[in-house]
Design a protein that fits this description.
5 strands, alpha/beta, elongated, 321 residues, 15 helices
Length: 321
């Protein structure tokens, strides 16, 4: 992140400090109620890691001492049934701390895009872009540029989350961020933004491989052009045959998918054929023969004949030694 970018407030006990009653908009939408944790399910497409290790332990200990200081935000699905939008870590730590209820702000009638934006923005505000894995960064960029078209709604949600964190000045100064402005905030080049948008098109299996450094970024971008069904074929193949995919092979699949000629069977045949070609190349080590020697012994001979002569000569040479 840029050195002159606004700094996120550091909260040493991990939990965001509770805002005063004047900090939260006084309307029905922000009324805080206690909800049984058993009534709340995780967000259905939650792509972000939960806290682990010391960070989780610190949060659990803080909740045991002080309770949950900042309410979570949930979406009401029906009676006694809610979905978490902002506060997965607080809910997880509360369970470990032995709590059975949690303070919550209840939202209703949100669109899929609006609900997803709460999930993205709360992770962005609490952890920061630089702390995220590459697939999480891709989700953030996609949410801002690929999935959310209503910029005004995004600002409303971001403002609300900033106020809940006690960051009133930032909330007041919030203005619309264009694609370039947000890219500049995180020191991203246009090409990096483009790659992140592609990465967000990967199926979870390939996102996980990328996060764990088991898949090259350039290869993952090529894979992202395959349909989700084609990506599933590829993942199954790589597991079954233990083949490592390179950029050239991935690009061939990309082009076949683009032309509409990629099937599960020809994907398998193509990749097995390429793998055999690689094995053949590994069987040979090239060397240079001086032109005088080549003209004297091998003029007019085929490649396989030259190979046979050299092999026999070497066998005899080392046998005599």
């Amino acid at each position: 992140m840029k050195l002159d970018a606004p700094k996120r407030r550091i909260v040493h006990d991990v939990i965001d400090l509770i805002p005063s009653s004047s900090d939260v908009d006084k309307d029905a939408a922000n009324h805080v109620v206690e909800i049984p944790i058993s009534w709340i399910q995780p967000y259905h497409n939650h792509l972000f890691r939960l806290y682990e290790g010391d960070r989780l332990n610190d949060m659990v200990e803080s909740i045991r001492k002080n309770g949950v200081l900042t309410p979570v935000i949930v979406l009401r699905l029906d009676e006694n049934h809610y979905e978490m939008l902002a506060g997965h870590n607080r809910m997880n730590a509360s369970k470990l701390a032995g709590l059975t209820t949690i303070p919550a702000i209840v939202k209703e009638n949100l669109s899929e895009e609006e609900g997803w934006l709460y999930v993205v923005e709360t992770n962005l505000l609490q952890r920061g872009f630089s702390e995220m894995q590459i697939s999480e960064r891709a989700a953030v960029i996609a949410a801002h540029y690929g999935q959310i078209s209503n910029q005004g709604k995004r600002n409303d949600i971001e403002r609300e989350l900033l106020i809940l964190e006690g960051r009133e000045k930032e909330a007041k100064d919030l203005v619309q961020n264009s694609r370039k402005a947000l890219a500049d905030e995180y020191s991203l080049s246009p090409s990096t933004v483009a790659r992140l948008l592609r990465i967000n098109q990967l199926i979870p299996e390939f996102k996980s491989k990328l996060d764990k450094n088991k898949l090259q970024l350039v290869v993952s971008v090529e894979i992202s052009y395959l349909t989700h069904e084609e990506q599933k074929w590829l993942d199954d193949f790589l597991h079954a045959y233990n083949v490592k995919l390179d950029r050239s092979s991935a690009n061939m699949l990309h082009q076949k998918s683009k032309s509409g000629t990629l099937t599960e069977e020809n994907m398998r045949m193509l990749l097995l054929g390429l793998d055999r070609e690689k094995d053949k190349k590994k069987m040979y080590q090239s060397t240079k023969i001086p032109k005088t020697v080549y003209r004297k012994y091998f003029t007019g001979k085929q490649e396989h004949e030259i190979s046979e002569v050299i092999t026999k000569a070497l066998e005899q040479y080392f046998a005599n030694k």
